[in-house]
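Attaching the record inline, Q. Sequence:
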Amino acid sequence: MGRRRRKKIKRVRRTRKLTSMRYFECPICGQPTLTIDFERLKDKPGFKKAIVKCGSCGLYLELEVPELYERIDVYNKVVDMAYEGKLGEAQAGGEEASESSDELAEALAEALVEEAGDSDEEGAEGSPREEEEG
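Structure, as predicted:
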């Protein structure tokens, strides 16, 4: 004769979501002080302004990105720009740095718009855009 068996108690373990990361590692100084904030653009529907700031080295960028982008997407673009050497030019010096960062932000926004346009036109041959250029 055995005794009655006890029920097992299942413990619920909660996992942390990584999507709400606030601070990223700066690609220039390596400190985890890079923040990315967003602002709405009233004049451009479908886009928002991403503001990238580093608290230790002073990196500051304003980029226009599609509304679908989240912080991690913008961070990946900033890291790509750093590896290509475009961020070093923006940080070169004083007032020239702010002008070149504006030009850099405009160039990145144009590239993002072209990426979005290219993904829509992949299946279409002889698109009007290609005919105008050629």
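The two ends are 91 Å apart (CA to CA). Residues 23-116 form one domain.

More tomorrow.
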